[in-house]
Amino acid sequence: MSVVRTSIDAGNSRNHSESDGTVAHPKVKEPVNPSLKGIKYVIFPENRYAQAWDFAMIVVIWYYAFAIPFHFGISSGYYQMCYRGFSLFNNVLNVMFIVDTFLAFLRAFRDENGLIVYSLQSIRRRYIRSGWFFINLMASLPTSLILLGQIAASNKPFGSVTCHGQIHEHFENPNVRFVLVLEGFKLLRLLRIKKIMQTSELMSKFWEGINVEIALTIKFCYMIVLVSHWIACIWGLIALQQMESYVHSSLLDELNWISNWYNSSYVEGGLNPIGWENAIPRYWLCLFWAIQSITSIGYGNISPVTTIEFAFANFLMLLCGIFWAYIIGSLVEVVQGLASTSQEYISRMNDANQMVKDFTVKQLPESVGGSLHKKSSKRVRRFITNQRDVATKNWSESNASTLAESYPTLSILSPELRRFCALHLTYSLLETIPYLSSNYLSPEEQAEIAMQCVTLEFSTAEKFSAHPDLGRGILIFRRGFATVSRNVPSKFFRWHKDIKDKPIDVDEVLVEDDYLEERQLVFHFVGFTKVFFVPRSAIMGILEKNERAWKDCARWRYFKAGLVLYSMKDSLTA
Fold first, then answer.
1. What are phi and psi of 133, to 5 degrees?
2. How many CB atoms lie under 10 A from the CB of residue 39?
3. How many helices (H) and strands (E) does the chain have?
4. 386 vs 399: CA distance, rounded Å
5. pLDDT tops 60 at residue 121
6. Do 453 and 533 touch, CB atoms closer than 8 A?
7. 3-state secondary structure at position 63
8. How many CA atoms lie within 13 A of 249 on its CB side?
9. CB-hemisphere CA count at 13 Å for 406?
10. pLDDT > 70? residue 501
11. Going by C-beta distance under 8 Å and a sequence separation of 6 or more, which residues neighbour residue 372?
């Protein structure tokens, strides 16, 4: 019936086409680029879920870096066989490893040129040919689940109180011991941990967002902890492997470092390393020996006894000598980096003290320096201290520092990236100046202005009207405050409050330097002050090129400032 119906439908379709006078053509599906096939299944590096997954895998791998050596050398799988919760937790981690192994077939990657490869065929070919699929597959063996099956097949108790007294019966099963050995394959994932951490966006943000010296300190401390842990676990494993039976009390009947310590140093009620359930106290004893070996302290209360223990101790002493020297040298470099500001401060203060010592006149006459300049030596020292505390972290060689001098990173960036960074640093400040704002200037012009600006620092009671090299300009206060005057007695002083990140009199800078110079602004700084200085030469250079900024905004402010200065004649002479 279905064949007949199909034939009738085909005939009707053909007749319908003929009646319309048109010829029906089968719809041809457009070919798809092979590299785009299955692209909807591809997981790209920027995917936020992929980033969270990578971070979770980093945590799991580092967990196994501590847990598996502990299982081998300290507990011998005791917690896996006697605690259901611990076994369930390990099964969950096994599932994560299995999922990650096969997710890699869908993970896009960047090639050596930084381009993203998203072709599923290329991703799969690379993953298999690199050998990492087989390594990850071995590391994903569900050993905890297999261990449960072996224990269930042996009809021995699991996860109950009776397990604590019969744990040796599990160890006598060769299949159980073999499964525990397979657990070590999970450490193969450590071979990829560096690559995963380098490609993880979350890890990159973390390391890039903290101080470099602090990051290195964390790294070296972690290395010390990890190496100490591994050595402690190997030291415990050596003692366990010398037992002739799986009854843990046999440790005291055999010649090994644990029995030697127990017979000579054990105190009733103190730390007891004997018994499978005493894995944690045994670990502390092993870790104590590992740390004193690495640091070359050596109390002597724990010492090797057998040939294999002496062999390992000799090898460890040679290895730890190199490792400890590397760690100490690296930490010294980190501490020097952290103390660089203090060292610079000490150097500058020593130079200042030498200069003050060479003063030919300790106090200048009041007619020369004024009443505020009597204690110049104190003001010099206080200025340097204020520079250290509140000026900048990277001290420049001179007081007037450009953006490139304050932030040396700018000099190594590409031109476009340097422009964007300059805008990030100064955009909000330039926006406070109407004719330099984004209403009139392009981002390129604002960046050009920003790179010509400098940071100036002033001490208490200093005066400023023009920079000796850069001339007049606009002062935007970043810290501190000042009074302003017009080269007249103090009754014409004017206080400015709440001036942080705000300019003062942006119009007057537009008038010529020699126009009523005696009436132009003079700044008197109160306390240590840091300002962002926009030179007049840079402003006029931009306004000459940008006619709209001059015609629509700056020229009217220029006329206004000229009239204001001219109108002051009567008020100042009154």
1. -65, -45
2. 14
3. 25, 8
4. 13
5. yes
6. yes
7. helix
8. 2
9. 20
10. yes
11. 460, 461
Amino acid type, 43: I
The answer to whether 91 and 144 are in contact (CB under 8 A) is: yes
Q: Which amino acid is at 289?
A: W
DSSP 8-state secondary structure symbol assigned to residue 484 = E
For β-strands 116-117 and 109-110, DSSP reports them as: antiparallel
For residue 523, what are the β-bridge partners? 464, 484
**What residue type is assigned to position 305 of the chain?**
V
Backbone torsion region of residue 263, taken as left when φ is above 0, otherwise alpha when ψ lies between -120 and 50, otherwise beta: alpha
CA 549 distance to own-chain centroid? 42
- Where are the alpha helices (H) located in 183-211, listed in sequence order? 193-199, 201-209
| DSSP assignment string, 227-267 | HHHHHHHHHHHHHHTT-SSS-GGGGGTS-SHHHHHHHHH--
pLDDT in tens, 351-400: 777 777 766 566 656 655 555 545 667 767 777 777 666 644 444 444 56
What per-residue string of b and e applies to 233-255 under the rule 16 or more CB within 10 Å gives b?
Answer: bbbbbbbbebbeebebeebeeee
- Residue 353: its H or E element: helix 340-357
What 3-state DSSP class applies to 482?
Answer: strand
Residues 281 and 286: their CA atoms lie apart, in Å, by 9
Beta bridge partners of 524: 463, 483
Rounded distance between C-alpha atoms, residue 193 and residue 63, angstroms: 12
Provide the β-strand partners of residue 338. Answer: none
Residues 102-117 have a mean pLDDT of 83
Q: DSSP for 356-387?
A: HHT-S-SS--HHHH-GGGTTHHHHHHHHHHHI
Q: Are 294 and 323 in contact (CB under 8 A)?
A: yes
Structure pTM? Answer: 0.58
Say if CB 377 and CB 385 are below 8 A apart: no
Residue 210 is given by DSSP the state S
pLDDT tens-digit series, residues 438-492: 999 998 999 899 999 998 988 877 888 888 888 999 999 888 778 887 755 444 4
**Residue located via tokens 């299995």:** 98
Kind of pairing, strands 522-535 and 473-485? antiparallel
- At 147-190, the pLDDT tens digits run 777 666 665 555 544 455 555 555 666 666 777 778 888 888 88
Smallest CA-to-CA distance from 529 within 455, 470, 466 is with 455
Q: Which contacts qualify for 461-468: CB closer than 8 Å, 24 or more apart?
A: 461/370, 461/372, 461/373, 461/379, 461/524, 461/525, 461/526, 462/524, 462/525, 463/522, 463/523, 463/524, 463/525, 464/522, 464/523, 464/525, 465/520, 465/521, 465/522, 465/523, 466/513, 467/400, 467/533, 467/535
